[in-house]
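Morning, I've got a small favour to ask if you have a moment. You're getting the sequence in one-letter code plus the fold written as tokens. Thanks so much in advance, here it is:

===
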Amino acid sequence: MLRHVNRLRSAVYGIAIGDALGLPVQFQSRDSYPEVTEMIKGELPWPAGTWSDDTSLTLATVDSLLTCEGVDVPDMRARFMDWMDNGAYTQDGEAFDQGFTTVHALTHGRGCTNEQSNGNGSLMRILPLAFVKNLSDEQIAQVSGITHAHPLSVEACTVYVHAAQLILDGFSLTEALETASL
């Protein structure tokens, strides 16, 4: 069961908008472009407003949570595979920007735990878990581990989800970060 479903919708819109704003400058160094305040095309081959794999996998996560009424890792992984293989959850039916770690994990059935596999890919799509009632740290680890199972990646996801849950419960950002990091 999910909580705060209207706020979940707002969170997903925020992720998609931030992703679409950032995609055109994703691979550029910080000081090489002006502040991005509107949807732009940039130098990449996709139109303005295009989102990346981060939003696609967030949408797959939400779809799984709603369909299964909670965390179902095999279902979620199958939806991630559908994105990778068939372009599901994309704006045009074409998946792109698949990171090596994510592709390797999906192809082999589990995220790796080695240092080279530590990344923020699971962190970019994990926020919807904050809306799951009675969520355990093990469930967060399992969802992160679909693509990123390195202990630091899992820990970052756990702290992030707990901080988001605290914010949903009325804590300030500072209070939530301090409490979730303990």
Q: What stands out?
A: Residues 52-180 form a domain with the ADP-ribosylglycohydrolase fold fold (CATH 1.10.4080.10). The two ends are 26 Å apart (CA to CA).
